[in-house]
Each structure stands twice: as C-alpha cells, then as structure tokens.
Amino acid sequence: MLIEERLEKEKKIIEENKSVTIESLAETLGVSKDTIRRDLMKLEKKNVIRRIHGGAVLASKEALILNYSERANQENTIKEKIAEKTAKLVKDHSSVIFDSSTTVEAVIPKLNGKSLKGITNSLTHAILLSKNERTSVSVLPGKLNNKQLFLYGADTVDKIRQYSVDYTLLGVFAISEKGLFIHTEEEGVVKRAMVQRGNKIIALADHSKIDTTGYFKICSLDEIDILVTDKMPELKFVESLAQNNVDIVVTEE
C-alpha cells in the first residue's frame, strides 16, 4: 500500500470515528505502531488531526481560537439571532454579568430600554452598555489582554466574588457532555468565577461550538441553566442537557 493511500484511509477512519487509537489503526491497516505514529505526525502537520496520548482526534474537535476582530466578524447573522433570543430572557430591573465574548456583546444593544446593573471585564462591552441610559456599568479591574480586549487576573476574580447577580451571560468557546471549555486558563478562571456568582447562567453557543473541547474547563453542564443556540443539537447532547436540568432555546423555528 502506498503511503498516500494509507494516509487517506487513516484520515477516513478518524473522520468516521472522531477519535482512534494507534493500536486499532495498526491492526486495521496491518502495519506497525511506529508506522502509524509517523503517519499521524504527517496528518497533524496538515491540520487534519490532533495527536493525543495513544491516538488521535479530528482537528475540528478542538474549537478554533480567534482574536477579537476575527470573532466579532464571524457568523454575524447567527450571533444576532442568538442575541435576540437571549435579550428576551433578561428581565427588566436586573443585575447582569457580561463576559467578554462577542456573542454576548451582540446581546447588549438589544437590551436598550431595560434598567440594568451591568458588570463586565470587557472594555468594548462597557462602552456599549454605557449607551443605555438606564444601565449602570461596573468595569472589573485587572490586567488587559491587548488582543482580546478583556481584563483578567487575581484582581478580576476577587472583584467578581463580591457580586451576586440575577444573570451571568456566558459566551461559549466549546461545549460538550463533559462541560464548558476555553482555550486559556487566564480567561477560564474569570468565566468560572462569573458562573459562580450568577443566579441564572445563560450560555450562548452557535452550533459549531457544540461537541468541541478546549484546554481549560470552566464548569460542568449542571452549572448552567439555559443554552441558547442556533440549531437543535444531536439527540445525545440534548439528552445530556435534560439530565443536567439545562433548558435549551433554539433560534430556528
């Protein structure tokens, strides 16, 4: 079997199974484990797969990491629909923690007219919130991430712990049956603190974020109350949400 032919077969097997072990690939293709290891290195360089201990997973299982401007421009129509649904869930005369995600940012203009106490670690969100005359804005302290434009660190987390709010709006980087994830610990610990201080946690995630993972776990599914998304997820994940008492709101009618 030619190398390219074998690589193509390996790629197809991983795509069909989402993940695979070196041992199972070696047995299926009738080659040594060392050969499979070398093949996986080639596929990883092509960004087809991501190697893990003892095997590999599809590269797409790891949610994409984008800077602020890329995130702000991504799937704007979907974000707007999710934002509209989310804004309807937030009652007038409420206190709300807004995380630094661009999906949460899209919610802010749709809350205009409501009397709110807003707390955020995002400079851009704070500016948007200030445009609503009926909203008071508290900006959390901390170190500034120059690319993502959010504040983070021990001071940020300590300040969050002083609040007890009606809602936490949480933009989701990655979500699966195992919980909610983010790609950096520095942002993850801030989001985790935000989850702990909200009476009702509303998570916002388009369909591309579902059944993906990240480096740092923010919380388990049972720590959120509502998931707002644009498409109905696969049945297995919907069942996991129900088992963890998470309501799902879908923008598609």
From TrEMBL:
The keyword Transcription applies. InterPro entries: Carb_Metab_HTH_regulators (IPR050313), DeoR-like_C (IPR014036), DeoR_HTH (IPR001034), NagB/RpiA_transferase-like (IPR037171), WH-like_DNA-bd_sf (IPR036388), WH_DNA-bd_sf (IPR036390). Keywords: Transcription, Transcription regulation. Residues 3-58 form the HTH deoR-type domain. PROSITE patterns: HTH_DEOR_2 (PS51000). It holds the Pfam family HTH_DeoR. It comes from the Bacteria. GO terms for molecular function: DNA-binding transcription factor activity. This is Transcription regulator. It comes from Neobacillus bataviensis LMG 21833.
